[in-house]
Specification:
There is one protein chain. The protein is of the alpha/beta class. The chain contains 15 helices and 13 strands. The radius of gyration is 30 Å and the shape is flat. 37% of the residues are buried.
Amino acid sequence: MNENETIVALATKAGNSAINIIKLSGDKSIEIADGIFKAENKKKIKNINTYNIIYGKVYDEKNEIIDEAIVSVMKSPKSYTREDVVEINCHGGIAAVNKIIDIIIKKGARLAEPGEFTKRAFLNGRIDLSQAEAVIEIINAKNITSLKIAANNLTGNSRKAIKNIREKVIDIISELEAKIDFIEEDLETIPIEKILKETEKVRDEIIELIENEKKSEIIKEGIKVAIAGKPNVGKSSLLNILTGKEKSIVTHIPGTTRDVIEETINLDGVPVIFKDTAGIRKSKNIIEKIGVKKSREEIKYSDIVILIFDNSKKITEEDREMLKITNETERIILLNKIDLKNKAEIEEIDEKIRKEIIKISVKEKTGINKVIEEIKKKAIGENEFLYEEKVIVNKRQRLLLENALTDIENAIKTIKMNYSEEYIITDLKSANSRIAEITGENTENEILNKIFSKFCIGK
């Protein structure tokens, strides 16, 4: 990839639509656009001011009209990429778009790689890597909360926090190096006790960012809730009530649900992905056996398991097995059909389970609010996570911070063990290098290419 070449791409979704936008960026953008576009007012694109638009028609190599269009121009450095950028707003037909792009390429541009416009914005210093990643997070946002988190980071929210931490690490390194340089001089330097405190403050700030990211993953990606139990205990009925939809087939016949049925609702800003699983029991039916296998997999990989038992039937070995395999997971135990005579005696299994049980009747809609409150408590926690007041990094950045945290903690241990400054500096410099990767100040080309490859072509 030659980053000095002029690039072109369709910036809107491919296919028939009202309009499409073809975007060029690079030194030859204006020259190429002027070669295929004639304005109604006879003006050349090179002669109009930046952030202006002009109406006219696009012509092919034979000087025949392809389409009418509005062209906007953003001249360097006042553009997304800090290069000359031209956007051709044409009609949304596939043939017209392909023909225009084909002519542009013949005039000297090349087709852009995925994310290349944003990569140029990063390489030209308009945004840092954390802001570039915020762009793709805005595009991929699954809910309004995820969108707001990404938008905050696009404005530099996480960049400022990372920069502040890095400056503190560099200051500590400088103080330690001063201690080495002036060891034989009678010059005053910061006591090692104060350096320890400053390093511990940095550690605490990094820990907070890591914890924020972990909590935000629930908000951004949603929380997976598997509804499990034996056939005909009320799993599908519960899903229908919780989602407000007749998503699952409900009959008196056991084993109706053979596959995992999924539905998402928004619970106080958090996407909750409910999965109604096939009833778990021994079966000779090959389709039902596959469904039971999938159910066990969903239980294993879900964040929360809602385990339902039938109040009107005695507890079986299969029920006991379900309690056993979910013992280490976040779970909610429901005793359904309390409108019927109690035969289950589930409370007698042990003290812990007795405290966990929520008694409900899906048929009469009794206890459903308690179930919703318990889901919220397990998904969001006792205290509301106020994402608006937090700095939230992404997963790649969190992993780098976790590595930096290990270096910082090693530095703290080294200080407490009274090792010489050189050893402390080694750990802190390693931490500094990892933190610099977050904003792209110290990132290999291979990693950059991997990040930008996740973008769509045209962004």
